[in-house]
Amino acid sequence: MQIGLLFYVCIFWTSSSIFGAVYVFPFEKFTLVKERKADMYRLSAFYVCSTLCDMIAHVTYPTIFMSILYFMVGFQKTAQCFFLTLLVVLLIAITSQGAGEMLGAAVMSVRRAGNVASLILMLFLLTGGYYVQ
C-alpha cells in the first residue's frame, strides 16, 4: 500500500508542477515582448525572477504535504527517512517545474503546451515502473 501511495504522490506532484509551469511563458509572452522592446530588463532577469517566484510554491506546498502525509500513513519515523523522502519529492516537483517551463517556452501556444504536457506525463506514467510485475 505504501508503494502505491508513493507512486501516487510522485505522479501528483509531477502533474501539478508541469501543468502549473507549462502555461507561464505562453500567457506572459506579450508582456515580455513589450517590456523587452522597451529595454526594461534582460531576458535572463525575467526568467530567474519568474522561476524563483514559482519555486517558493513548488517547495512550500510539497513540504507541508509530506510533513502531514509521511507521519499519517505510518512510514518509518526516523529523521533520515523523512528528509530523504522529502528530498525526493522536492526534486520531482522542481524538475517537473523546469520541464513544464521548457515545454511552455518551446511550444508557446496554450493549447499545444497542454497537449504536449499531457503526452509527456502519460509517457512518464507508462515508463515509471509501477506496472512492472
UniProtKB/TrEMBL annotation:
Membrane topology: Multi-pass membrane protein
Residues that span the membrane, as ranges: 6-25, 45-70, 82-100, 112-132
Pfam families: ABC2_membrane
Lineage, uppermost ranks: Eukaryota, Viridiplantae, Streptophyta, Embryophyta, Tracheophyta
Subcellular location(s) per record: Membrane
Name of the molecule in the record: ABC-2 type transporter transmembrane domain-containing protein
Domain of life of the organism encoding this protein: Eukaryota
Cellular component per GO, a single term: membrane
